[in-house]
Amino acid sequence: MKSLLRFLSLCCLWLASLTAQATSVVFLNPGYSTERFWLDYSAYMQDAADDLGMQLEVLYGERDPHKILGNARAVLQRSNKPDFLIFTNEQYVAPEVLRLFANSGIKLFALHSTLTPEQQELAGGSREKYSNWIGSLVPNDEEAGYLMGQALIGLAPGGAGEMVAFSGVKQTPSATLREAGLRRALAEHPQMRLRQMLYGEWKEQRAYEQATALLPRYPAVSLVWAANDEMAFGVIHAAQEQGRNLQYAALNNSQRVLQARVDGRISVLASGHFILGGCALVMLHDYAAGLDFARYGGKDQTARLFRLLDERQAQRLLHFDRRANGLDFRRFSATQQPQMRQYGFSIDAMLR
């Protein structure tokens, strides 16, 4: 019995030592702690951390720049600091995060949205003025907005008609880039007129209120482009109350929007970026193992994760069980693929 207890004790010490040696990461999540998208986003990050043997802590910023920076300062004051801090440029807080952590010894990584070109003129790019800012990973937001716009315009006879658009928060690079993609699509189809662009702040209720006032002004509008799913549902609600039959383009991966794509209530749906945080952990895992991710696509990378989903693909994602089926993030790691030349992040395995 004593030998068994000693064995168990040694096992516990061994496991504790593994935990102590695990690469530690703090993610300054900009979203609400009750927000489905950011909760799912963090869940995939935790899956990746588990696959890769990393420690992950998520701090929610509640879409408040003061809260986000408060979380950053709290991390900085810890006696046991993480190896890496992942931040976003939501509400344009990134330059202040870089300044705060300049001499911290913590490696910084921008995720989901990085510094704008204007901000980088002052703060520099990664591995420049702030040498501990080692890189970034962002989704192909501009391309997503373009693909959504192209497909939505394609639903109109001859590509002619009128549309309205709902973007997110102005101080958000993701929203700005998706808007730019839509405007690129519109420039290629001058016969399609954008009547108005509104900022629904990513919220269903806000978009509902805006659409309730907006739609009666434009009786010829037949298309609605929305930069996320919640705003699309707000417009759908308003249009139903007014007896309007419209076609919608939206973006995200919630169960609700996937079902709406399957049912045909959403005609165009872009998705795929929900694994982006997990992909960032792959890059940091490789970096910590001595394989600089800059060798596999550059220090600042854009993951072409966004794609348009047809009904069958939406159905597949709708019934994908993350816990049962999983997505082994080790498949993307350079430590597992010695011949790899560039990261190939993708949701293909989930769609098969």
Automatic annotation (TrEMBL):
The protein's name: LacI family transcriptional regulator
Annotated keywords: Signal
InterPro entries in the cross-refs: Peripla_BP_I, SBP_2_dom
Signal peptide location: 1-22
Domain Periplasmic binding protein: 25-290
Family annotation (Gene3D superfamilies): 3.40.50.2300
Residue ranges that the Swiss-Prot or TrEMBL entry lists as coiled coil: none
Family indicated by similarity: Belongs to the bacterial solute-binding protein 2 family.
